[in-house]
């Protein structure tokens, strides 16, 4: 997925920095926690390295992706993939509220693709409720649906708005594609909690933090995926069909609360090493983070130029620079 803040292209940078501070971690079993896991890129990498991974995110679609990536292991029965792709479309919640042909006024998906998404989502719930699939299959297919349907969205990468005219990639007939099932440490667990609450319940060796850097709330940018994931028929408001996301708004998106939230996690963390990803345009300054972390142990900093995430027309963006400076703040706690 083309996801804001994804660390896919920075994995080598992160891994090399972590090794230089904490040493090799693929020898023996260590506990690696990722409290803002997003699409699961970092946690999955350390699962493959043999770490017991705790992956957490307050967004439910992210929780589903990590339930699959972190908790599923080969083999997972994917024999129903053809069954899902052969389902006839149905007029469900996605079609009625996110497709132009329903009269909703929204154009997130073509009518046919919205109906196909509904048919798959309803069938998946039916199979689970009837005991015809197990938990591993449920999260495998639901994660695959979330990841697949995103490729057919008629948006400029995020769901803060839909496009007036349907772009070519959104016009393709929707096909459910299976996500890979990755082996590695089999003791990991996914969570769907507020990171400032979950931190009290975890302990381990390495804590990785990748919170939102600015005022953009993920719950607003990916609200359609959240509804597909939960399929809870929420009340939608406004032109974009926003669901109530009050409980999912991150304190890291506000200058008033970000510093206190970060310090709480650092102070309460029962981990030997803490690594924080941030950049030069974030709410918190480099010096503020450095001063905060230095209070709790030995501090180090790594940085790398990184290409900016693009989610809209370049000329309309407030930031004109093509890259940002990605920081990795490192702390060895006393």
Briefly, what is this?
By secondary structure, the chain is of the alpha/beta class. The chain contains 13 helices and seven strands. The chain is 35% helix and 15% strand.
Question: Any key phrases for this structure?
Answer:
seven-stranded mixed beta sheet; 13 helices; 334 residues; alpha/beta; 35% helix
Could you explain how this protein is built, in words?
The protein has about 325 residues and is α/β, with parallel strands linked by helices. It contains 13 helices and seven strands. Strands 3-2-1-4-5-7-6 form a seven-stranded mixed β-sheet, with helices on both faces. Helix 2 links the parallel strand 1 and strand 2. Helix 3 crosses helix 7 and helix 6 packs antiparallel against helix 7.
List the helices and strands and how they pair.
Elements: H1 11-22, E1 31-34, H2 41-48, E2 52-56, H3 60-71, H4 81-85, H5 93-98, H6 111-129, H7 135-149, H8 168-171, E3 189-191, H9 195-198, E4 203-209, H10 218-221, H11 223-230, H12 258-268, E5 270-279, H13 286-294, E6 297-307, E7 323-333
Parallel strand pairs: 1-2, 1-4, 2-3, 4-5
Antiparallel strand pairs: 5-7, 6-7
Q: In which range does the helix fraction lie?
A: 25-40%
Question: How many alpha or pi helices?
Answer: 13
Q: Going across the biggest sheet, name each strand in turn.
A: 3-2-1-4-5-7-6
Give the rounded overall mean pLDDT: 94
Strand/helix succession: HEHEHHHHHHEHEHHHEHEE
Name the beta content range.
15-25%
- Number of strand elements: 7
Task: List segments where confidence is low: pLDDT < 50 over at least 5 consecutive residues.
Answer: 312-317
- N- to C-terminal separation? 38 Å
* Largest pleated sheet: 7 strands, mixed
Tell the overall outline.
Answer: globular
């Amino acid at each position: 997925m083309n996801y804001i803040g994804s660390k896919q292209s920075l994995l080598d940078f992160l891994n090399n920095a972590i090794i230089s501070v904490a040493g090799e971690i693929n020898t023996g079993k260590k506990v690696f926690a990722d409290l803002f896991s997003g699409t699961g890129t970092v946690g999955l990498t350390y699962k493959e390295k043999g770490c017991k991974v705790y992956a957490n995110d307050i967004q439910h679609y992210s929780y589903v992706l990590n339930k699959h990536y972190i908790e599923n292991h080969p083999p997972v029965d994917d024999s129903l993939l053809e069954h899902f792709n052969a389902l006839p479309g149905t007029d469900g919640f996605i079609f009625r509220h996110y497709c132009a042909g329903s009269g909703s006024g929204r154009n997130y998906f073509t009518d046919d693709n919205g109906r196909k998404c509904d048919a798959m989502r309803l069938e998946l719930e039916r199979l689970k409720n009837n005991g015809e699939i197990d938990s591993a299959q449920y999260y495998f297919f639901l994660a695959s649906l979330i990841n697949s349907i995103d490729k057919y969205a008629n948006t400029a990468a995020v769901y803060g708005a839909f496009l007036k005219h349907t772009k070519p990639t959104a016009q393709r007939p929707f096909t459910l594609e299976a996500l890979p099932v990755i082996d590695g440490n089999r003791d990991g667990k996914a969570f769907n909690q507020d990171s400032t609450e979950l931190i009290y319940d975890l302990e381990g060796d390495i804590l990785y933090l990748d919170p939102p850097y600015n005022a953009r709330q993920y719950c607003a940018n990916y609200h359609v995926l959240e509804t597909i994931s939960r399929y809870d028929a929420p009340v939608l408001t406004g032109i974009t069909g926003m669901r109530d996301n009050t409980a999912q708004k991150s304190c890291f998106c506000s200058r008033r609360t970000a510093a206190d939230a970060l310090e709480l996690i650092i102070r309460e963390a029962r981990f030997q090493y803490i690594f924080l990803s941030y950049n030069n345009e974030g709410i918190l300054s480099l010096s503020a983070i450095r001063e905060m972390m230095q209070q709790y142990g030995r501090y180090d900093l790594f940085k790398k130029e990184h290409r900016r995430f693009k989610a809209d027309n370049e000329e309309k963006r407030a930031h004109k620079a093509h890259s940002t400076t990605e920081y990795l703040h490192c702390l060895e706690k006393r």
